[in-house]
Amino acid sequence: MTTVLVIEDNPNNLYLIRFILKKHGFEVTEADTGKKGVEKAIEEKPDIILMDIQLPDIDGFEATGRIRQSEEAADIPIIALTSYAMTGDREKALSLGCTGYIEKPIDPDKIIAQIKEYL
């Protein structure tokens, strides 16, 4: 079973993505802060990480950098899942270590295919 670590502080967004992932047979683990997300990524080594960028402690860019610097989790695909949708935001996310970029609000009909592209 494919494990997805969702790092997201908004309970409504977390509920939606968890529901969609579980419906499609993914195992879901969660973190509501960047620091917790980094810890879980290193400890649990999920198959893929969905990373919110706006988090309450360290932002998703910093969390991504810390994961990339770890030996244990450096190769895990990380998809920025964010409402940042300005010109250049996708490029910034990719240049800072994200494997992919999905804009919020997510499209429940497309999100699984988007995730599978990076697995």
Automatic annotation (TrEMBL):
GO biological process, one term: phosphorelay signal transduction system
Gene3D superfamilies: 3.40.50.2300
Pfam families given in the database record: Response_reg (PF00072)
InterPro entries in UniProt: CheY-like_superfamily (IPR011006), Sig_transdc_resp-reg_receiver (IPR001789)
Keywords: Phosphoprotein, Two-component regulatory system
Segments forming domain Response regulatory: 3-119
SMART domains, per the entry: REC
Signal sequence region: none
Modified residues annotated as 4-aspartylphosphate in this record: D52
Entry-linked PANTHER family: HYBRID SIGNAL TRANSDUCTION HISTIDINE KINASE J
The protein, known as: Response regulator receiver protein
Organism: Methanoplanus limicola DSM 2279
